[in-house]
Design brief:
alpha/beta; about 20% strand; about 40% helix; about 250 residues
């Protein structure tokens, strides 16, 4: 028997698809900016090359760059036909709330290198942006807010790129951040994911469990890393997985 979808269900699905399309557009624009603009090459690409990431790795993870100009992304997205309200909802742009520029819409990630966050199916659900100079902003990392298509507790950075290797090697390395994942890939270790600025969660562990029952936690050996590792051990064991822990001296990854 065929069930007709309720109008609100269809509306919700269309809304999610619209958000997804905008994120894909943004990801393509950021990658294009990185490789094909003078500023992108001089600032973003040179940063990744200094970290000894190859162009293949940069392309595999769809890394990007957002221009210094405060609203270049916003203007490009609107010109391409994307709605201001949806750009705000995804946190790709923000509206200033006070001061003489109250109401002005500016890019959230301007002058940052960009790390697209993909779902297990490879769809871009969010972005992380890293500033390259403390003078530009005291906030080193900025991330997309949660949205209709992004709940950070359910997502692991790098899982799309790592899932087949995790299955093959029957082990998943769990690290702390974006650059840790990329550094491991650079060394040829591809079965690696990161919880990216969020404490490890049960949904994240269950996502790993789809591909392996063996987890190796690799966190920094500072007090925060040790605390996070101890907490992670308990959660992983509770979900019925096998766990090992490697604590790294600061700056070793």
């Amino acid at each position: 028997m065929k069930h007709n979808k309720k109008p609100e269900d269809l509306e919700k699905r269309n809304h999610r698809e619209a958000l997804q399309i905008i994120n894909e557009y943004a990801g393509n624009l950021f990658t294009n900016t990185l490789f094909n603009t003078e500023e992108g090459k001089a600032v973003g690409l040179s940063y990744f090359h200094e970290r000894q990431f190859t162009d293949n790795t940069i392309k595999e993870f769809a890394l990007g760059y957002s221009l210094q100009e405060k609203d270049s992304f916003f203007r490009a997205a609107v010109a391409a036909g994307y709605k201001k309200e949806l750009l705000l909802e995804l946190g790709l742009v923000v509206q200033k709330q006070d001061g003489k520029y109250a109401g002005e819409i500016v890019d959230k990630f301007n002058e940052r290198v960009i790390f697209p966050i993909r779902s297990v199916n490879g769809k871009i659900v969010a972005f992380g942006g890293r500033i390259l100079s403390k003078e530009q902003s005291p906030v080193k990392y900025m991330n997309s807010p949660e949205s209709e298509i992004y709940q950070k507790k359910r997502v692991l950075y790098g899982v799309y790129e790592a899932k087949s290797t995790i299955s093959q090697q029957k082990n998943c390395y769990l690290v702390e951040g974006y650059l840790d994942v990329l550094s491991m890939h650079k060394l040829g270790i591809c079965n690696v994911v990161a919880s990216s600025g969020t404490s490890l969660t049960v949904p994240q562990i269950r996502l790993i469990k789809k591909f392996t029952e063996n987890v190796t936690i690799m966190y920094d050996g500072d007090s925060a890393g040790i605390k996070a590792a101890i907490r992670g051990i308990g959660l992983v064991l509770k979900e019925g997985l096998n766990v090992k822990v490697v604590l790294l001296p600061d700056g070793d990854l």
